[in-house]
Amino acid sequence: xxxxxxxxxxxxxxxxxxxxxxxxxxxxxxxxxxxxxxxxxxxxxxxxxxxxxxxxxxxxxxxxxxxxxxxxxxxxxxxxxxxxxxxxxxxxxxxxxxxxxxxxxxxxxxxxxxxxxxxxxxxxxxxxxxxxxxxxxxxxxxxxxxxxxxxxxxxxxxxxxxxxxxxxxxxxxxxxxxxxxxxxxxxxxxxxxxxxxxxxxxxxxxxxxxxxxxxxxxxxxxxxxxxxxxxxxxxxxxxxxxxxxxxxxxxxxxxxxxxxxxxxxxxxxxxxxxxxxxxxxxxxxxx
Length: 287
Known about the structure:
The chain is an all-alpha fold. The protein has one domain (8-282). Helices cover 82% and strands 0% of the residues. The longest helix is centred in the last third of the chain and has 45 residues, at 229-273. It is globular.
């Protein structure tokens, strides 16, 4: 791997952000192709859920019949399941790319990348469950604990998946080490994630502008102008496609955030534990 993109290297906050985008720029086509394979199906499911169930305009309009009927009582569970699948897909995307890049022979085909996806699948699932449980707790227990306290705990948890994925350790060790590294570098981790998120928000806003324009056309202009049923259906299908695209862009931006956490983990691990030096010693002993 290029020295600029090596994982275990001390970096400042801006350097972690730079390394994140350098990595993506180097592997841009692979990132997009693998992201489409892993994330587009769940984006379609999320979009169908939002447009056919949560939006009454789509649900109650008999001209918008997509043939899907979801049980109202199961909707929260179904939606959380889709969200968990999306998080799992993002984690698999990030770590499959990292594993492939570490081999210094990134496959050009999706079939070649699948072995790295399989390698990352199980541990990514465990990481997704850990993060998802924490997120669920954050959303459901804010009435019992101050939101600031939960937010403070949430930031260090972002380093648990990198430790679990990149090191050969148990889940308890990954949690304890991730929290230890996270708390010791809380501010730098927070501002690294914040910088990547701000860039991502700009990207999401640019993508969402067409969706917002079409939403305005659907809810205001079309009913007033008396457009035909076929025209309304066409506009709704276009909105559905833009909703899929918006979800896809959001998840791809989330992959950037998680990738920046990986580079931050590598920087903190190198500074605190001299990880690259220990790796060189082990490699020398094996020789």
